[in-house]
Amino acid sequence: MLRTLLLVGAGGFLGSVSRFLASRFFQSNIQSVFPLGTFIVNITGCFLIGLIYGLSERSATFGAGWKLFLTAGFCGGFTTFSTFANENLALLRDGAFFHFFLYTGLSIFLGIAATFIGILITKLL
């Protein structure tokens, strides 16, 4: 159990740091009311988890340890749906209803689509 916790914790640390850096990069370089940094991170995280699960179903590419490290750890730390919820509340609070619906709708639809595409790509390889 300790090994599992260390794998998930190490992956989560790297995922969280990666999320922070990626989100900060986009928010610093693209000025917008739309929370682009978190949006890109969430869609990318959904795509990555789709690739990882697809590859692990297709072959023994990832052992159980690597799968835990990459999915529960890295992708769990990388995706930011708690931030997503908070940003949506801020958009509602600010009266930015169009951006609220756009952000929520696109995040859910593209997140599911990116996960599906990630799995599909692994089946086509």
What would you note in describing this structure?
The structure is a single chain. This protein has 125 residues and is mainly alpha-helical. The chain has one domain. The protein has 5 helices and no strands. It has helices at 2-29, 36-58, 64-78, 81-93, 97-124. Helix 1 (2-29) packs antiparallel against helix 2 (36-58) and helix 2 (36-58) runs antiparallel to helix 3 (64-78). The relative contact order is 0.19. The model has no long low-confidence stretch (mean pLDDT 92).
What topology does this entry show?
Blueprint: H1 2-29, H2 36-58, H3 64-78, H4 81-93, H5 97-124
Helix pairs in contact: 1-2, 1-3, 2-3, 2-5, 4-5
- Approximately how much helix is present in the residues? over 70%
Helix/strand-derived class?
mainly alpha
Low-pLDDT segments: none
Quaternary? single chain
Short summary:
The protein contains 5 helices and no strands.
Jot down its keywords.
globular, mainly alpha, 125 residues
